[in-house]
Amino acid sequence: MYDGPVLDNHLHLDPINGQGxxxxxxxxxxxxxxxxxxxxxxxxxxxxxxxEAGFRExxxxxxxxxxxxxxxxxxxxxxxxxxxxxxVSRLTERGYDPDEAAALMKAGIDxxxxxxxxxxxxxxxxxxxHYEVEEAVWEASNEVxxxxxxxxxxxxxxxxxxxxxxxxxxxVTEWAEAEGLxxxxxxxxxxxxxxxxxVPSVISKKDELERACGxxxxxxxxxxxxxxxxxxxxxxxxxxxxxxxxxxxxxxHERALYxxxxxxxxxxxxxxxxxxxxxxxxxxx
Length: 285
Known about the structure:
Helix content: 40-55%
CATH architecture: Alpha-Beta Barrel
Strand content: 5-15%
Structural class: alpha/beta
CATH class: Alpha Beta
Number of helices: 10
Distance between the termini: 7 Å
Shape: globular
């Protein structure tokens, strides 16, 4: 059986409206060891954002709940901070033109890069809307994403992307490379089991995980748990990655699990999930 680290690469902890650190304890009790905690959209935590101060407030809430979660895990919890691409629509609905919206979102990315450079954050979050928007909004969103690539390159970190679905994203990694960011430091969150371009952070549904295990490419596992009391367990609950890890181990996929939980985090984020794993784990695999 696989007996190594278990990382959920994309999960939200809401310290205001949701379970917060209790969800991290649920994850650990199921056998999870490491978390990459994404800030929830700014509008869910602090309301309308007009400038850097609103982003800082959002990020500080996430850094603090991640710090508390870190104390409850046998491994580590690390924040991934950035600007949800859906903010562009909220801003244009409030009267911003697309370029003005992009400028504010880029300012948020700059703040996230500052948190990476100064130590609390592991990586940056960016992307583009996963729904249909007018061309000017789409172009502005791509500009924000490319700005995130440039800032990530400048501070030496990875970027997690929230985008539309699909499997062909070679152009996105070409843009990253043009901005100085290596393609293997670009991660597509909520990915299927196969992807061209970025590293897939595979939503932990059985069929997609089997696809990811069926090749030798890097991948990560995630739940995209949103920590919303009105949608308990959405998208997937915090126990899911440990349970799916156990299920994959029983199916003989130990090598793929080592790739997902050890090798890929090291390559993408520069973190050592084995070295940061204590021996006194509860609820192991």
